[in-house]
From TrEMBL:
Alphabetical list of PANTHER family matching this protein: AMINO-ACID ABC TRANSPORTER PERMEASE PROTEIN YHDX-RELATED, MEMBRANE COMPONENT OF AMINO ACID ABC TRANSPORTER
Organism: Rhizobium tropici
Keyword flag Membrane: yes
NCBIfam families per UniProt: HEQRo_perm_3TM
Protein name: ABC transporter permease subunit
Compartment(s) where it occurs, according to its Swiss-Prot or TrEMBL record: Cell inner membrane; Cell membrane
Domain ABC transmembrane type-1: 93-385
Family membership noted in the UniProt record: Belongs to the binding-protein-dependent transport system permease family. HisMQ subfamily.
Organism lineage: Bacteria, Pseudomonadati, Pseudomonadota, Alphaproteobacteria, Hyphomicrobiales
Membrane topology listed for this record: Multi-pass membrane protein
GO biological process per UniProt: amino acid transport
Amino acid sequence: MVDRQQTGVFSGKVRSATAGPRYRYFLYDAIIYVALALFIVFVVKNVSSNLARLNITGGFAFLQGKQAGFGISESLIAYDAQASYGRAVVVGLLNTLFVSCLTIVFSTVLGTVIGILRLGQNRPLSKLAQAYVELFRNTPLLLQLMFWYALILISFPGLREATPVLGIALFTNRGLFLPWMASSTGFGWFYVGTAAGILAAFAWRWICRQRQQRTGSQMPVFLPSVAAVALLLILSKVYSGTELSLEWPKQAGFRIVGGLSLSPELATLIIGLTLYTSALIGEIVRSGISSVQKGQIEAARALGLHEFTILRLVILPLAIRAIVPPLTSQYLSLMKNSSLAVAIGYPDLASIINTIINQTGQAIEGIGILMGTYLIISLGISLALNLFNKRMALVQR
């Protein structure tokens, strides 16, 4: 039997032995934090003195207090040279989000097709998909953008020589011009109707899921959701009294009026980012499908299901759990790669911020806006995909 006094002495020695490293780690952390705080104080003091020496006033007041004084070739909202710097930043942000969203959709669809073809039974298509991946994945993105931009400017005819393609579109070295809808009162009704239709579709999907959990019977979801969106769009148009017409692009001197115009810079950015990112997504999809156990596929085939039905209902739902995590990184990289638009002259956020810095000298504020914007967008994409991934995760009960 061990003496209590000896046991107390032994436990005291153990506590004293473990307390030493703990205090050392605390001391090391304190030294690091103090050094970091001193470094930040030094940087702030140095920057403040340099700004005072250059007679530059810090802060973000310049965003609303001064006119931008420069034009932007493409804008999703109204903008002119008399607008403020803040509005110019908003224009650049919308352009970046517009390109990023379009490219995410196009590259996801194309990359999924490429990944499926690589594992398909058709050998020529599989080899063609492999060659596509190797070509675009192993070529620098900036080089691809420069290639597509030069190809569009050289290959497409000028405005005088432009001829309609299929009697509909005009391809010129100044862009692609397509027929587009024109509204007498704007497209506010379209946005309202679309938002209401999407909410109605989600509500119907929730109702169908609750009914299935209660009774086990399934109800159609896709067609009623599409019908709800279309019906609410029609009701919004009728209520607003909007008259719709189709505008056709036509030549008017040295320019083309009417329709929807797609500039060479925007077309180059969408094509380059889509081809490059879809090659990377194709490999992610291929690896995700390869991770599905063969027994699941054989069991589906034993039930007599069609190969496309197996792909849609068995393979992809199981593979999506391995696809989403690396796909998140690719979406983040795509959004940040859109800043290469400055190389071909597309007015994205990075390009406009660079112009503002050159005019105002507010480099710290401009870089801060740029970093903060990309950080917020990246965190938003990560949050959305992480929530989706958590929802798709298998739950053991």
